[in-house]
Amino acid sequence: MILRSRLLASLPLALFAAPIAAQQNVVGEEEPAEEIIVTGKGLDPALSNGIYATTTLERDAIVASPSGRIEDVLRGVAGFQQFRRSDSRSSNPSAQGVTLRALGGNATSRALVLLDGVPLADPFFGYIPLSAIAPETLGTIRVTRGGGSGPFGAGALAGTIELESAAPGDGVLASAAVNDRGETEASGVLARSLGLGFAVASGRWDRGQGFFTTPLAQRVPATARAAFDSWNAALRTVAPLTDTVEVQARIAAFRDARTLRFRGADSTSEGEEASIRFVRRGRWQFDALAYVQARDFSNVVISATRFTPTLDQRRTPSTGIGGKFELRPPILEGHDIRIGADYRRADGELQEEALNAVSGAVTERRRAGGATGNLGIFVEDDWQIGPLTVNGGLRADRSSITGGFYRAVSATTGAVVGEVIAPDRSDWSLSWRAGALLYATRRLGLRAAAYTGLRLPTLNELYRPFVVFPVTTEANANLANERLQGFEIGFDWQPVNEVVIAVTAFDNEVENAIANVTIGRNLRRRANLPAVEARGIEASLAAKFGAVSLESALAWTDAQVRGEGPSADLDGLRPAQTPEFAATLTLGWQPAPGWRIAGTLRHVAAQFEDDRETDRLPPATTLDAFFAAPLQGRLSLVARAENLTGEEIVSRNQGGSIDLGVPRTLWLGLRYGF
After folding, report:
1. Which of 160, 211, 251, 646 has its C-alpha lying 20 to 30 A from 563's C-alpha?
2. What percent of the chain has a predicted confidence (pLDDT) above 70?
């Protein structure tokens, strides 16, 4: 586990502030006339949420995933995409980038992912620790596509994914399951009232031998299953300070160990975090948040010819700290005004040793790292005029990149083999968004919006070279910030009470898009492309007729690189890892309380591994299933099936070296209290 002084200093505050507050009245305050109710949530969603393409997932859908993984839940949202088709059991954690609207192309997240208002992206790599998110602890998920200008908007280049914890009553939730490979998962949630507030302790443990990601024809004696062993634990407390102010505190820790392709190719990611949040409701509303994160990552690279270690990336410690303050003053009738500021700083250092594939001796020692920071100031207003809501937001960001370096030293002579000392730099950027929603009828809403966005390069992109056999990718300390501009139009239509249809057409462009650009045989380099353009249509349909429900989503995107100068040969090509079409359809049946039978059909079109469209990933169509039946009281039997038809899902293809996604997997387990 990682021990950091800043994190440890935050733990007593996070653990004890809320329970103490739950049992005391504030001095000088009168006893409220009505019972105080704490929610554990942030401020109510802004009216402007309806202006931008937004999808909300409720708890019933979140806890009924066939795989039990948060990424599987999000795959039901139009436009959601991971860097690779593999999930958080069988991929390298550093490849777990998520994005929206086909604006991918590398493993860094271009979407802002928040848990109770706290950004989750790894401070060094920018990936999302998906295995650290337990779906059973969540109440809602809200996905907003398009550039953001509100809190932490500098990370919301492609959109925002807001995860919100559930607010349970007293009691226990528990589940355990085993699959046909003998892999297991177990989780528990314990909720307890504390005065007028509550506390929730949760934990989850997943482990198993995994499956062979390597096709049978490419296996060698050193080939290994994608074994995994991960756990996460969290304690969250919520309590009132006054009749309008509540405090929310959270501490959490996780560890995730995986093996990929060969014996000894082990990776480990781990972290701890703490946050404290004050939320005031009523006339003068505010949301104040502070957090600290400590993360680490290690990885061993195995030679694909000798099957011995060639690189020991033994540590990558990093720290993220930040916070925000948002005020909603009631100063104009019919206006919902939000004013605030946020700050995030990330620092980290790579520590790795190159090894002789024959002797195992250390040949080179490498260090790389630095810090990035962003201070944002924002103002946004929703103006409601009868059936019309108009939104306008402005955000100014001062971003900085400091202390950047890369240094490689010979292990035998101590001589410097390679060195980069990057100059410190900083600048100001202005982002904005504007839109309108008109209810043409009681059942039909018409919307239009335009926006810009910003993303800083990560320390990983700036300073860390890496190898995924047989390709080496170089870092680039001179990367510029990515900038997005786009617009969209759409409608939300409820022709009858039981049916809701949403359609959005969009045109987005990312200038200075960071991509892994081929510069030689088996050699790539991170570089800013002139632009990545993405135009497309997203649509969703939700219907419920008695016990039968239907939910579907699709995204069609025409994405291409705009290449100039050194990247002119990429002009018009499709960005790496970007499918043209993706769709999902879930048909469910709930014949009685506690029962649920559902099947999910998904299709992802072909995509390319590389920027030059040479290594193709064929399309994949999968069928998943979920079954739950009550046994006695709050105890239920649960059966799940992943990839029921056994479709071959190619998740990586580099020069013919193939990785596969999850095969047919059957789960059987018990749940209590869900």
Report:
1. 160
2. 94
